[in-house]
Write a structure and sequence with these properties.
There is one protein chain. It is built from 13 helices and 14 strands. The protein has about 375 residues and is of the alpha/beta class. The longest helix has 16 residues.
Protein backbone atom coordinates (compact mmCIF):
# COMPACT_ATOMS: atom_id res chain seq x y z
CA UNK A 1 0.00 0.00 0.00
CA UNK A 2 1.09 3.58 -0.69
CA UNK A 3 -0.58 6.95 -0.18
CA UNK A 4 -0.76 9.30 -3.16
CA UNK A 5 -0.83 12.53 -1.16
CA UNK A 6 -1.17 14.88 -4.13
CA UNK A 7 -0.24 18.49 -3.48
CA UNK A 8 -1.30 18.37 0.16
CA UNK A 9 1.14 16.35 2.26
CA UNK A 10 4.57 16.88 0.73
CA UNK A 11 7.98 15.68 1.85
CA UNK A 12 8.89 17.68 4.93
CA UNK A 13 6.25 20.26 4.14
CA UNK A 14 2.74 20.84 2.81
CA UNK A 15 1.33 22.59 -0.20
CA UNK A 16 1.27 26.37 0.12
CA UNK A 17 -2.18 27.75 0.98
CA UNK A 18 -1.88 31.15 -0.73
CA UNK A 19 -2.31 30.18 -4.39
CA UNK A 20 -6.11 30.31 -4.57
CA UNK A 21 -7.06 33.64 -3.04
CA UNK A 22 -5.11 35.74 -0.49
CA UNK A 23 -8.31 36.16 1.52
CA UNK A 24 -8.49 32.38 2.02
CA UNK A 25 -4.85 31.79 2.94
CA UNK A 26 -5.26 31.40 6.69
CA UNK A 27 -8.43 29.33 6.30
CA UNK A 28 -6.69 27.00 3.83
CA UNK A 29 -3.65 26.68 6.08
CA UNK A 30 -5.88 25.45 8.89
CA UNK A 31 -7.67 23.10 6.51
CA UNK A 32 -4.28 21.79 5.37
CA UNK A 33 -3.34 20.96 8.96
CA UNK A 34 -6.62 19.11 9.49
CA UNK A 35 -6.32 17.28 6.18
CA UNK A 36 -2.92 15.72 6.81
CA UNK A 37 -3.93 14.66 10.32
CA UNK A 38 -7.07 13.03 8.96
CA UNK A 39 -5.00 11.20 6.33
CA UNK A 40 -2.34 9.99 8.76
CA UNK A 41 -4.93 8.76 11.25
CA UNK A 42 -5.96 6.06 8.81
CA UNK A 43 -2.47 4.91 7.75
CA UNK A 44 0.40 3.01 9.33
CA UNK A 45 3.86 4.54 9.69
CA UNK A 46 5.48 2.35 7.02
CA UNK A 47 3.11 3.44 4.25
CA UNK A 48 5.07 5.36 1.57
CA UNK A 49 3.97 8.95 1.01
CA UNK A 50 3.95 9.78 -2.71
CA UNK A 51 3.21 13.46 -3.41
CA UNK A 52 2.75 14.80 -6.92
CA UNK A 53 5.48 17.37 -6.41
CA UNK A 54 7.51 19.14 -3.78
CA UNK A 55 11.18 18.27 -3.55
CA UNK A 56 12.06 21.96 -3.22
CA UNK A 57 9.25 23.14 -5.51
CA UNK A 58 7.85 26.62 -4.94
CA UNK A 59 4.48 24.89 -4.60
CA UNK A 60 5.69 23.86 -1.14
CA UNK A 61 4.97 26.10 1.80
CA UNK A 62 8.65 25.68 2.77
CA UNK A 63 11.73 24.48 0.94
CA UNK A 64 12.17 20.91 2.12
CA UNK A 65 14.28 18.39 0.25
CA UNK A 66 14.28 14.68 -0.44
CA UNK A 67 12.50 12.46 -2.93
CA UNK A 68 11.12 9.64 -0.76
CA UNK A 69 9.28 9.44 2.54
CA UNK A 70 6.76 7.51 4.61
CA UNK A 71 3.79 8.50 6.73
CA UNK A 72 5.81 7.69 9.85
CA UNK A 73 8.72 9.86 8.73
CA UNK A 74 6.39 12.78 8.10
CA UNK A 75 4.57 12.22 11.37
CA UNK A 76 7.89 12.52 13.19
CA UNK A 77 9.35 15.55 11.43
CA UNK A 78 6.79 17.47 9.39
CA UNK A 79 5.60 20.70 11.03
CA UNK A 80 2.03 19.83 10.12
CA UNK A 81 2.24 16.95 12.62
CA UNK A 82 4.67 18.26 15.23
CA UNK A 83 3.04 21.68 15.78
CA UNK A 84 -0.38 22.59 17.07
CA UNK A 85 -2.64 24.21 14.51
CA UNK A 86 -2.15 27.82 15.65
CA UNK A 87 1.64 27.56 15.73
CA UNK A 88 1.64 25.72 12.41
CA UNK A 89 -0.49 28.38 10.71
CA UNK A 90 1.63 31.20 12.14
CA UNK A 91 4.82 29.58 10.87
CA UNK A 92 3.35 28.80 7.45
CA UNK A 93 2.12 32.35 6.91
CA UNK A 94 5.43 33.84 8.06
CA UNK A 95 7.43 31.65 5.69
CA UNK A 96 5.51 32.24 2.47
CA UNK A 97 7.60 33.95 -0.21
CA UNK A 98 6.94 35.28 -3.70
CA UNK A 99 4.72 33.23 -5.98
CA UNK A 100 6.37 32.46 -9.34
CA UNK A 101 4.79 34.69 -11.98
CA UNK A 102 3.94 31.82 -14.30
CA UNK A 103 1.62 30.21 -11.72
CA UNK A 104 -1.18 32.50 -12.86
CA UNK A 105 -1.15 30.69 -16.21
CA UNK A 106 -1.08 27.18 -14.77
CA UNK A 107 -4.65 27.07 -13.47
CA UNK A 108 -6.30 27.80 -16.82
CA UNK A 109 -3.89 25.45 -18.61
CA UNK A 110 -4.59 22.60 -16.22
CA UNK A 111 -8.31 23.28 -16.36
CA UNK A 112 -8.30 23.09 -20.15
CA UNK A 113 -6.45 19.78 -20.09
CA UNK A 114 -3.06 18.93 -21.57
CA UNK A 115 -2.36 19.68 -25.20
CA UNK A 116 -0.25 17.26 -27.26
CA UNK A 117 3.44 17.71 -26.46
CA UNK A 118 5.92 17.95 -29.33
CA UNK A 119 9.37 16.91 -28.14
CA UNK A 120 10.94 16.65 -31.58
CA UNK A 121 14.16 18.69 -31.95
CA UNK A 122 13.57 22.43 -32.38
CA UNK A 123 14.43 24.22 -35.60
CA UNK A 124 18.23 24.66 -35.87
CA UNK A 125 19.42 28.25 -35.51
CA UNK A 126 22.60 29.61 -37.07
CA UNK A 127 24.45 32.75 -35.97
CA UNK A 128 22.40 35.03 -38.22
CA UNK A 129 19.11 33.66 -36.90
CA UNK A 130 20.28 33.99 -33.29
CA UNK A 131 21.15 37.64 -33.93
CA UNK A 132 17.79 38.23 -35.61
CA UNK A 133 15.89 36.74 -32.69
CA UNK A 134 17.81 38.87 -30.21
CA UNK A 135 17.14 41.99 -32.29
CA UNK A 136 13.44 41.11 -32.28
CA UNK A 137 13.40 41.06 -28.48
CA UNK A 138 13.16 37.29 -28.16
CA UNK A 139 14.96 35.41 -25.40
CA UNK A 140 18.09 33.42 -26.21
CA UNK A 141 18.88 31.12 -23.29
CA UNK A 142 22.33 29.58 -22.83
CA UNK A 143 22.07 26.30 -20.89
CA UNK A 144 25.78 25.81 -20.24
CA UNK A 145 27.28 26.10 -16.77
CA UNK A 146 28.08 29.53 -15.37
CA UNK A 147 31.84 29.13 -15.77
CA UNK A 148 31.56 28.39 -19.48
CA UNK A 149 29.09 31.24 -19.88
CA UNK A 150 31.42 33.70 -18.16
CA UNK A 151 34.29 32.67 -20.42
CA UNK A 152 32.39 33.34 -23.62
CA UNK A 153 28.78 33.77 -24.72
CA UNK A 154 26.54 35.53 -27.22
CA UNK A 155 26.00 39.14 -26.18
CA UNK A 156 22.42 39.68 -25.10
CA UNK A 157 21.75 36.08 -24.12
CA UNK A 158 20.58 34.81 -20.74
CA UNK A 159 22.27 32.07 -18.75
CA UNK A 160 20.03 29.51 -17.04
CA UNK A 161 22.04 26.40 -16.24
CA UNK A 162 20.43 23.27 -17.62
CA UNK A 163 20.66 21.51 -14.27
CA UNK A 164 18.62 22.27 -11.17
CA UNK A 165 15.52 24.43 -11.34
CA UNK A 166 15.80 25.53 -14.96
CA UNK A 167 12.07 25.40 -15.71
CA UNK A 168 10.95 27.19 -12.55
CA UNK A 169 13.50 30.00 -12.77
CA UNK A 170 13.10 30.61 -16.49
CA UNK A 171 9.29 30.52 -16.39
CA UNK A 172 9.29 32.86 -13.38
CA UNK A 173 11.28 35.57 -15.19
CA UNK A 174 10.41 35.40 -18.87
CA UNK A 175 7.52 37.51 -20.21
CA UNK A 176 4.81 34.93 -20.80
CA UNK A 177 4.60 33.82 -24.40
CA UNK A 178 8.01 35.24 -25.36
CA UNK A 179 9.74 32.97 -27.94
CA UNK A 180 12.77 31.11 -26.57
CA UNK A 181 15.87 29.93 -28.43
CA UNK A 182 18.00 27.41 -26.54
CA UNK A 183 21.81 27.18 -26.77
CA UNK A 184 23.55 24.12 -25.35
CA UNK A 185 26.61 21.91 -25.38
CA UNK A 186 24.83 18.93 -26.93
CA UNK A 187 21.49 17.94 -28.47
CA UNK A 188 20.86 15.87 -25.33
CA UNK A 189 21.12 18.99 -23.18
CA UNK A 190 18.62 20.75 -25.42
CA UNK A 191 16.26 17.77 -25.26
CA UNK A 192 16.42 17.61 -21.46
CA UNK A 193 15.66 21.32 -21.17
CA UNK A 194 12.85 21.05 -23.69
CA UNK A 195 11.19 18.29 -21.67
CA UNK A 196 11.52 20.27 -18.42
CA UNK A 197 10.06 23.42 -19.95
CA UNK A 198 6.91 21.65 -21.11
CA UNK A 199 6.06 21.11 -17.43
CA UNK A 200 5.68 24.86 -16.90
CA UNK A 201 3.85 25.72 -20.10
CA UNK A 202 6.79 26.58 -22.34
CA UNK A 203 5.80 23.89 -24.79
CA UNK A 204 7.94 24.52 -27.83
CA UNK A 205 11.30 26.34 -28.20
CA UNK A 206 11.43 28.56 -31.26
CA UNK A 207 14.89 27.28 -32.22
CA UNK A 208 18.09 25.77 -30.82
CA UNK A 209 21.82 25.59 -31.45
CA UNK A 210 24.54 23.34 -30.06
CA UNK A 211 28.27 22.85 -30.39
CA UNK A 212 31.09 25.39 -30.39
CA UNK A 213 29.80 28.71 -28.95
CA UNK A 214 32.02 30.58 -31.40
CA UNK A 215 29.65 29.46 -34.16
CA UNK A 216 26.74 31.20 -32.43
CA UNK A 217 28.18 34.65 -33.23
CA UNK A 218 28.14 36.10 -36.74
CA UNK A 219 31.34 36.39 -38.72
CA UNK A 220 33.33 39.37 -37.52
CA UNK A 221 31.60 39.38 -34.14
CA UNK A 222 33.11 38.03 -30.94
CA UNK A 223 31.66 36.29 -27.95
CA UNK A 224 31.61 38.46 -24.85
CA UNK A 225 32.77 37.50 -21.37
CA UNK A 226 33.13 38.78 -17.83
CA UNK A 227 35.61 38.13 -15.00
CA UNK A 228 34.82 36.07 -11.94
CA UNK A 229 36.03 36.48 -8.38
CA UNK A 230 35.71 34.93 -4.94
CA UNK A 231 34.70 36.44 -1.63
CA UNK A 232 38.39 36.76 -0.75
CA UNK A 233 38.74 39.05 -3.76
CA UNK A 234 35.80 41.11 -2.52
CA UNK A 235 37.39 41.46 0.91
CA UNK A 236 40.70 42.47 -0.68
CA UNK A 237 38.99 45.07 -2.85
CA UNK A 238 37.30 46.59 0.19
CA UNK A 239 40.61 46.66 2.06
CA UNK A 240 42.08 48.62 -0.86
CA UNK A 241 39.26 51.14 -0.50
CA UNK A 242 37.63 50.30 -3.82
CA UNK A 243 34.00 51.24 -4.38
CA UNK A 244 32.17 47.92 -4.56
CA UNK A 245 28.41 47.49 -4.65
CA UNK A 246 27.18 44.00 -3.81
CA UNK A 247 23.73 43.14 -5.15
CA UNK A 248 22.21 40.10 -3.43
CA UNK A 249 19.40 38.67 -5.58
CA UNK A 250 18.59 35.62 -3.48
CA UNK A 251 15.22 35.06 -1.85
CA UNK A 252 14.53 36.23 1.70
CA UNK A 253 14.88 32.73 3.14
CA UNK A 254 18.28 32.28 1.48
CA UNK A 255 19.56 35.63 2.68
CA UNK A 256 18.41 34.88 6.22
CA UNK A 257 21.17 32.25 6.45
CA UNK A 258 23.88 34.88 5.99
CA UNK A 259 24.78 37.76 3.71
CA UNK A 260 27.56 40.13 2.75
CA UNK A 261 27.90 43.21 4.93
CA UNK A 262 26.26 46.35 3.44
CA UNK A 263 24.97 44.43 0.41
CA UNK A 264 21.85 45.62 -1.36
CA UNK A 265 19.10 43.01 -1.31
CA UNK A 266 16.58 42.73 -4.14
CA UNK A 267 15.28 39.23 -4.89
CA UNK A 268 15.80 38.49 -8.56
CA UNK A 269 12.10 38.17 -9.32
CA UNK A 270 11.52 41.70 -8.01
CA UNK A 271 14.16 43.43 -10.14
CA UNK A 272 11.94 43.81 -13.19
CA UNK A 273 9.44 45.82 -11.17
CA UNK A 274 11.95 48.46 -10.09
CA UNK A 275 12.25 51.87 -11.75
CA UNK A 276 14.37 51.72 -14.90
CA UNK A 277 17.33 53.51 -13.33
CA UNK A 278 17.40 50.98 -10.51
CA UNK A 279 16.67 47.92 -12.60
CA UNK A 280 19.91 47.95 -14.57
CA UNK A 281 22.65 46.03 -12.85
CA UNK A 282 25.13 48.47 -14.28
CA UNK A 283 25.02 52.12 -15.26
CA UNK A 284 27.69 54.30 -16.86
CA UNK A 285 29.71 54.23 -13.64
CA UNK A 286 29.20 50.44 -13.43
CA UNK A 287 27.31 50.84 -10.15
CA UNK A 288 23.62 49.96 -9.84
CA UNK A 289 21.39 53.01 -9.64
CA UNK A 290 24.35 55.37 -9.64
CA UNK A 291 27.71 56.03 -8.16
CA UNK A 292 28.82 53.59 -5.48
CA UNK A 293 30.05 56.48 -3.32
CA UNK A 294 26.43 57.47 -2.78
CA UNK A 295 23.97 55.51 -0.60
CA UNK A 296 21.71 53.14 -2.55
CA UNK A 297 18.71 54.88 -4.03
CA UNK A 298 15.66 54.28 -1.74
CA UNK A 299 13.91 52.30 -4.45
CA UNK A 300 16.78 49.82 -4.39
CA UNK A 301 15.87 48.71 -0.89
CA UNK A 302 12.59 47.51 0.46
CA UNK A 303 11.00 49.50 3.32
CA UNK A 304 11.94 46.91 5.91
CA UNK A 305 15.63 47.12 4.97
CA UNK A 306 16.20 50.86 4.57
CA UNK A 307 17.29 51.30 8.18
CA UNK A 308 17.56 47.71 9.24
CA UNK A 309 20.50 46.61 11.42
CA UNK A 310 20.48 43.36 9.43
CA UNK A 311 22.13 45.29 6.61
CA UNK A 312 25.32 45.18 8.66
CA UNK A 313 25.80 41.60 7.83
CA UNK A 314 27.14 38.44 9.21
CA UNK A 315 28.99 36.04 6.95
CA UNK A 316 29.21 35.48 3.19
CA UNK A 317 26.35 33.49 1.68
CA UNK A 318 26.95 29.74 1.49
CA UNK A 319 25.83 29.62 -2.15
CA UNK A 320 27.70 30.30 -5.36
CA UNK A 321 27.35 33.71 -6.90
CA UNK A 322 27.85 35.47 -10.18
CA UNK A 323 27.09 38.74 -11.88
CA UNK A 324 23.79 39.72 -13.36
CA UNK A 325 25.02 42.63 -15.51
CA UNK A 326 22.90 44.75 -17.80
CA UNK A 327 23.65 47.22 -20.57
CA UNK A 328 25.58 50.43 -19.96
CA UNK A 329 23.15 53.29 -19.38
CA UNK A 330 23.51 56.92 -18.29
CA UNK A 331 23.74 57.32 -14.55
CA UNK A 332 20.51 59.08 -13.62
CA UNK A 333 21.39 59.25 -9.93
CA UNK A 334 24.83 60.87 -10.12
CA UNK A 335 24.12 63.21 -13.06
CA UNK A 336 20.91 63.10 -15.05
CA UNK A 337 21.56 61.96 -18.60
CA UNK A 338 25.34 61.79 -18.27
CA UNK A 339 27.88 59.26 -17.11
CA UNK A 340 29.69 59.83 -13.87
CA UNK A 341 33.46 59.52 -13.69
CA UNK A 342 33.63 57.10 -10.78
CA UNK A 343 34.28 53.48 -11.67
CA UNK A 344 32.88 51.02 -9.16
CA UNK A 345 32.43 47.29 -9.31
CA UNK A 346 29.12 45.46 -9.14
CA UNK A 347 28.96 42.06 -7.56
CA UNK A 348 25.64 40.27 -7.87
CA UNK A 349 25.23 37.56 -5.27
CA UNK A 350 22.92 34.77 -6.26
CA UNK A 351 22.21 31.08 -5.98
CA UNK A 352 22.40 28.29 -8.58
CA UNK A 353 20.14 28.62 -11.61
CA UNK A 354 19.58 32.35 -11.38
CA UNK A 355 19.60 34.24 -14.66
CA UNK A 356 22.60 36.13 -15.95
CA UNK A 357 22.03 38.65 -18.73
CA UNK A 358 24.80 39.98 -20.95
CA UNK A 359 25.28 43.48 -22.27
CA UNK A 360 25.33 44.36 -26.00
CA UNK A 361 29.11 44.54 -26.20
CA UNK A 362 32.27 42.84 -24.86
CA UNK A 363 34.88 44.15 -22.51
CA UNK A 364 32.75 46.21 -20.10
CA UNK A 365 31.92 43.96 -17.21
CA UNK A 366 31.74 44.02 -13.45
CA UNK A 367 33.33 41.14 -11.63
CA UNK A 368 31.34 38.13 -10.52
CA UNK A 369 31.62 36.59 -7.09
CA UNK A 370 32.07 32.84 -6.97
CA UNK A 371 32.78 31.63 -3.40
CA UNK A 372 33.44 28.15 -4.72
CA UNK A 373 36.22 29.51 -6.89
CA UNK A 374 34.93 27.58 -9.88
Amino acid sequence: MAAFTGGSLLIGSVGRPDLVDPRLTEHLARAQHASVHRLAATLDDEVPALPTHGFGSFCSSSQAGGDASTIGHERAGNDAFTLDVDTFVKRILAGLEGVPAYYVHMGPANGAGPAPVDLTPPEPADAAQIAERLAAGEWVVDLRNRVAFADGHVAGSFNFEGTGKLATCLAWLIPWGKPVTLLGDTPAQIADAQRELTRVGIDRPAAAATGDPATWARQGEQLTSFPRAGFADLAAARERGEDVVVLDVRRDSERANGFVESSVHIPLHELHGRPARCRTARCGCTAPAGCARRPPHPSWTRPDERSSPSMTASRPPPTRAWASPGPDTPCSTCAEGTRCSSHATVLAVSAPNRATRTSPGPGRWPATADPAGE
